[in-house]
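Propose amino acids for all 174 sites.
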């Protein structure tokens, strides 16, 4: 895989016409699991970006699992220095686990990184079961409608998904 990336990097650096095609075709780049990007992958991303800064990255440096394969989690930790105008959003609130679980995770992580905080009251976990995905979507849309009816601004509501494939049906339902 690295050889393919090296060839692509060399091709784009030696062929400004091809590089211009890539840059004109793609305005924004999004990188998930950025903590596992290698210096070679970062070099390719830098060539794609050029002088632009239209990039969105998502990651957790404490969850890097590919350092043995060259991943450089410091790229994520240093992102704010490389892109000083970037908006950094630290997701330090857990909406899925009780405070006891969040605190245990903080103890395991030690003093490094972000401290997790639970949004749930102690000992309370809400589990909703639905007969199928359609029922789940109807429930979600109903809860969002109720929030809006109660005065919550739509831009203050977020839907988090486990995988990107879940987004399209949610977008259609909303």
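Proposal:
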């Amino acid at each position: 895989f690295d050889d393919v990336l090296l060839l692509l990097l060399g091709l784009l650096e030696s062929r400004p016409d091809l590089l211009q095609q890539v840059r004109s075709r793609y305005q924004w780049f999004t990188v998930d699991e950025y903590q596992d990007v290698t210096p070679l992958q970062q070099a390719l991303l830098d060539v794609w970006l050029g002088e632009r800064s239209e990039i969105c990255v998502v990651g957790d440096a404490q969850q890097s699992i590919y350092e043995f394969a060259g991943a450089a989690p410091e790229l994520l930790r240093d992102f704010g220095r490389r892109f000083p105008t970037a908006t950094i959003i630290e997701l330090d609130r857990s909406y899925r686990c009780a405070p006891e679980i969040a605190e245990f995770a903080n103890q395991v992580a030690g003093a490094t990184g972000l401290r997790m905080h639970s949004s749930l009251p102690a000992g309370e976990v809400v589990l909703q079961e639905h007969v199928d995905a359609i029922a789940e979507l109807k429930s979600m849309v109903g809860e969002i409608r109720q929030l809006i009816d109660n005065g919550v601004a739509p831009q203050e509501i977020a839907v988090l998904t486990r995988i990107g494939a879940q987004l399209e049906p949610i977008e259609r339902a909303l």
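The two ends are 39 Å apart (CA to CA). Helices lie at 2-14, 16-25, 39-49, 74-77, 79-82, 99-109, 133-149, 167-173.
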